[in-house]
Write a structure and sequence with these properties.
Blueprint: E1 21-23, E2 30-32, E3 45-47, E4 52-55, E5 70-72, E6 77-83, E7 95-97, E8 103-107, E9 121-123, E10 128-129, E11 149-151, E12 158-159, H1 163-167, E13 173-175, E14 180-181, E15 198-200, E16 207-209, H2 214-217, E17 223-225, E18 230-233, E19 246-248, E20 253-256, E21 271-273, E22 278-282, E23 295-297, E24 302-305, E25 319-321, E26 326-330, H3 333-336, E27 343-345, E28 350-354, E29 367-369, E30 374-377, H4 387-390, H5 395-402, H6 404-408, E31 414-419, E32 422-427, H7 429-432, E33 436-438, E34 443-447, E35 460-462, E36 467-470, E37 484-486, E38 491-494, E39 508-510, E40 515-519, E41 539-541, H8 564-573, H9 576-600, H10 602-626
Parallel strand pairs: 1-3, 2-4, 3-5, 4-6, 5-7, 6-8, 7-9, 8-10, 9-11, 11-13, 12-14, 13-15, 15-17, 16-18, 17-19, 18-20, 19-21, 20-22, 21-23, 22-24, 23-25, 24-26, 25-27, 26-28, 27-29, 28-30, 29-33, 30-34, 33-35, 34-36, 35-37, 36-38, 37-39, 38-40, 40-41
Antiparallel strand pairs: 31-32
Helix pairs in contact: 9-10
Length: 627
């Protein structure tokens, strides 16, 4: 139930002073934070997250008499400058969350104060921390010996990570992503181990090599995200000694080969992202055995050789992305037999050979990208056997059984995919709604199978830059969800099916540089496509091209009919033979109707000759005047 409005009516409740818990999250509450809540002496838990409260927090709420233990006003619209000293006397405070108040400046260093509380959880994510004091790390954190979770992502903090954050014996979850943290990782004397389990330092400026002993100093790590930094050198072997479930080292400058310790039997890895580095050698070490792996992202590196056959040892693998490497050989037959692959991205490699019909057995396939390779042969006609491309699947049930990673992890899966010549980064729920095929820039031949028109759930289809022949299948009218359709740079012929104007979701379309002819459909969303979408087809005519359709230039005139019989009838009517035949029949019909009546009706015949005689006499009289 949503309440809406402000909090002021609660101040008028007679029994307000006896209230111990107040849960009003996600209720569209608005207005300023009422100071009357400070009068509730027995209040212990206050949850106002995900509303539209603005202004600042009244200091009276956190007096010496305050019994508040849990205070959550995250994801509101609080603004202004908040001095953290207002919490100093709230000795019972254990969990504090101000995250998601993007216009709120939090000052923890001035005025000076001494905390009387021991927090278990602190969330300041997306607040602006210590703007007046150089965006330093909050110093009071060093006194919090019970702190289990600290969220400081996207708070503009700068400098190196204080060592006490690593070696505080209580901190298990530390989120520092999207800041301006620099320096070297673990640039301090480490004579003890850390209790960290989940660690995020993504999108910062941390540089240098990771120490080889990192796995020994941080032995409890389960989820690690160090993506988008300036880390270099080799991936530490000691990572393999951890019980890692998530490891994201993408968008750095790591080199060398993938440590075998990461992929050996018994590893708990579910998510491994090493994309956008400088790694080389084989895609996976030999004898790899990652039983629990669900997502493997190795794109944009320098891996060589074939697709690692040890992938078959990962039976629940959902995502395999090896784009833009130097991999070669045929797409292996055993890959088609994989029981759970859903997203396969192989673009930008050196794969060759034919696409086998075995691909049609991959019933969970959602995204298949083999673009920019050397794959030849024909497109299999059985792609309509793939469930996710043809009919709605019970996605929620499927994700609950096959995607436990989505629920259990603190990080979202993200996959980069080029669509409409733009690289998009899909993550979270949108990733699992994505469906598409990209076979562009290969050496495919033959006709486009008409069965591809049955892939009604496809959102993106790219077959450009191949050697495909024949017509565009009329069955493409059934691609009701397609948003991007690129058939350019092939050898397609005949007309653009008029039925394609019914694809109302289509926003990007190109058939440039083919052998198409006839009038371009120019209705509905097709009226928004520019002439570049049709370049290189000299026999196409009509808007948006400057070539107009006419009879004399040999181009087919405009038609509105969708059936073949009506199209043929229109061409006969517009021919010269039909015109002359129509004139002759009309003349003969009129002649015999007129004179036939005169022959049959004697009275009409006498009247007719009488009129003619009078007309002739009148003519002679007029002429005699001039003679």
């Amino acid at each position: 139930m949503q309440i809406g409005g402000g909090l002021q009516p609660f101040c008028e409740l007679k029994r307000l002073k006896y209230l111990t818990e107040l849960f009003l999250e996600s209720n569209e509450l608005e207005g300023v934070f009422p100071s009357c809540l400070g009068m509730i002496q027995n209040l212990q838990r206050l949850f106002l997250l995900n509303n539209r409260l603005h202004g600042n927090l009244p200091p009276s709420i956190f007096s010496k008499q305050s019994k508040i233990e849990w205070f959550d006003v995250s994801y509101n619209q609080l603004d202004g400058v908040l001095s953290f000293s207002i919490f100093a006397n709230a000795s019972s405070l254990k969990d504090l969350d101000l995250s998601g108040n993007y216009d709120l400046e939090v000052e923890t260093e001035s005025p000076s104060w001494v905390p009387t509380f021991q927090l278990g959880s602190l969330g300041l994510e997306s607040c602006n921390i210590n703007k007046k004091n150089g965006h330093v790390f909050p110093s009071f954190i060093s006194s919090q010996s019970s702190l289990a979770q600290l969220a400081l992502s996207n708070t503009a903090i700068e400098g190196s990570i204080p060592c006490e954050l690593f070696f505080n014996t209580s901190i298990g979850h530390l989120f520092l992503g999207s800041n301006k943290i620099d320096g070297f990782f673990l640039d301090c004397f480490a004579n003890r181990t850390s209790s960290l389990e989940v660690f995020d330092i993504s999108d910062n400026r941390v540089k240098g090599c990771l120490p080889e002993y990192v796995g020994h100093v941080l032995p409890h790590l389960r989820q690690v995200n160090m993506s988008s930094n300036a880390l270099e050198g080799k991936i530490p072997w000691s990572f393999g000694n951890l019980t890692l479930e998530v490891l994201d080292l993408s968008y750095n400058m790591f080199s060398g080969t993938l440590p075998q310790s990461l992929t050996r039997n018994g590893t708990n890895l579910e998510y491994l992202d090493l994309s956008n580095n400088k790694l080389q050698g084989e895609m996976l070490p030999r004898n790899s055995n990652m039983t629990w792996l669900e997502c493997l992202l190795l794109g944009n590196n320098h891996f060589e050789g074939v697709i690692a056959p040890t992938i078959s040892n990962s039976p629940i693998l959902l995502i395999l992305d090896v784009q833009n490497n130097h991999l070669s050989g045929n797409i292996p037959k055993w890959l088609y037999d994989h029981p759970s692959l859903s997203i396969v991205i192989f673009n930008g490699n050196r794969f060759e050979g034919h696409l086998l019909r075995g691909i049609c057995q991959m019933k969970y396939l959602q995204v298949f990208d083999i673009s920019d390779n050397h794959v030849s042969g024909q497109i299999p006609s059985c792609l309509n056997n793939i469930t996710f491309w043809t009919k709605t699947y019970p996605v929620r049930k499927f994700q609950n059984s096959m995607f436990p990673f989505l629920v259990q992890n603190s990080f979202e899966i993200a996959v980069s995919w080029r669509i409409k010549n733009i690289v998009y980064n899909f993550k979270g729920a949108p990733l699992w709604l994505m469906t598409g095929i990209d076979m562009s820039s290969n050496q495919l031949t033959g006709c486009i199978p008409s069965e591809m028109g049955e892939l009604s759930l496809l959102r993106f289809l790219n077959l450009s830059n191949n050697f495909l022949t024949g017509p565009i299948p009329n069955s493409f009218r059934n691609l009701k969800n397609v948003e991007s359709l690129d058939l350019s740079h092939n050898k397609l012929s005949q007309k653009i099916p008029y039925e394609l104007v019914g694809l109302t979701s289509l926003s990007t379309f190109s058939v440039a540089y083919n052998n198409l002819s006839g009038r371009i459909p120019f209705e509905r969303q097709f009226s928004t496509f520019k002439m570049q979408c049709y370049d290189g087809n000299p026999n196409l005519c009509g808007d948006p091209l400057p070539r107009k359709c006419s009879i004399t230039n040999g181009l087919e005139p405009e038609h509105k009919s969708q059936s073949k019989d009506k199209e043929e009838g229109t061409s006969i009517i517009d021919s010269p033979l039909f015109f002359y035949a129509f004139v002759f029949v009309s003349y003969a019909f009129g002649f015999w109707v007129f004179f036939g009546i005169l022959i049959i009706k004697k009275s009409w015949r006498h009247n007719y000759f009488r009129v003619v005689d009078k007309f002739i006499e009148s003519c002679f009289e007029m002429l005699s005047k001039y003679w």
